[in-house]
Task: structure prediction
Amino acid sequence: MERILLQINDIDDIRNIIHDSIHNEFEMFFRKKQENGELLSRKEAAKELRISLPKLHELTKSGAIPFHRVGSRILYDRQEIIKAILIMK
Result:
């Protein structure tokens, strides 16, 4: 196990370290899922569901389709959107 020694001057330093660490972990997690084809962009999700982008936006905004926000991107988990569509039918 690697040891890391941190010099912390104030609480903001701790917050920033924690924020950056969590942000990096989520980025890696979502990048890995996207590379595996599990996460879809808006265009990919609309194509997979055979609906228009405006319809996808409407379903997303209403909460009918779950999504993940990664930075400024909106991504859809393939399995989650399939489940949501099946529930709607």
